[in-house]
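Why do we care about 3D structure at all? Because function follows from shape, and shape follows, mostly, from sequence. That is the central idea of this module. The next example makes it concrete: a single protein chain, its amino acid sequence, and then its structure expressed as tokens.
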Amino acid sequence: MRRTIARILAASSAILVATAGVADEESGSKPAAEIHGINPADMDPSVSACRDLNLYANGGWIKNNPVPPDRSVWSPGGQLYEKTQEKLRGILEKVSKAPNAPGSDDQKIGDFYSTCMDEAAVEAQGAAPLKGEFDAIDRVASLVDLQAEIARLQLLNVNAVFGFESDQDRRNASEVIAGAYQGGLSLPDRDYYLKTDEDSKKLRDQYVAHVTKMFALLGDDSSKASANARSVLSLETRLAQASMTPVEQRDPDKTYNRKSLPEMAKLTPNFSWTSFLRQIGAPPLAAINVGQPAFFEAVNRELVSTPLPV
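And the structure:
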């Protein structure tokens, strides 16, 4: 038992070694004394390890590191991430101000950062940089066009309608297949669309107001912007109704549904997976794991029942 506890403690505190003894290059402060292995100050030996191993191993750290008001969780890993972000920002600001050699990595990084930080130029351009994307969407005139646009957006890491990725076959550790998962929702999950309590209704009203504002900023008049926003909520609500609940998604058997391409064709006859895979440049695939088959059946129906502009 003691040997097992020691191993767990060593693993849980290993990350502290990475964060200790790191000098702050920007402020010039000296590094703290480097700590190897377990830091006794982060433990709480007043707690029995057999009753509460977490507090025994981490009670001191938890006591001395309260969760910041802008966070929902806090950990040594979170601290390490913040330190890394601070140092990256320091590097970016340094190279953006330095006289870098033309064509060098520092020059490219500095120019890219400076461009992103030029808020005045960003505000002046408005939505103009997105015109090419909107034009591509406006050219969609058929289901074939829509599928091609979905594939194009997927290549840009926009999970339009659904999520798609490489996936380890859960029942064959030697094989990597594709995975297709429910998506298409702007709010965090299905419950935000379907709960009937007053807070949920208020949140949906606020969401519609937000989407209306986005359409207005893109040039729609108030009535058109409002109608478009309502169409967005309506479509996303139907997708939410077909989505698995968070609890259902915790069941690994329910979210494992390996299907061949012919089986995929039967699942969604209005969406060609053969064409989709070709359009995204996927290698030959033996199968696709469909995380939520009912969701894709709903997408298949929406492709022909929902007006194409929506």
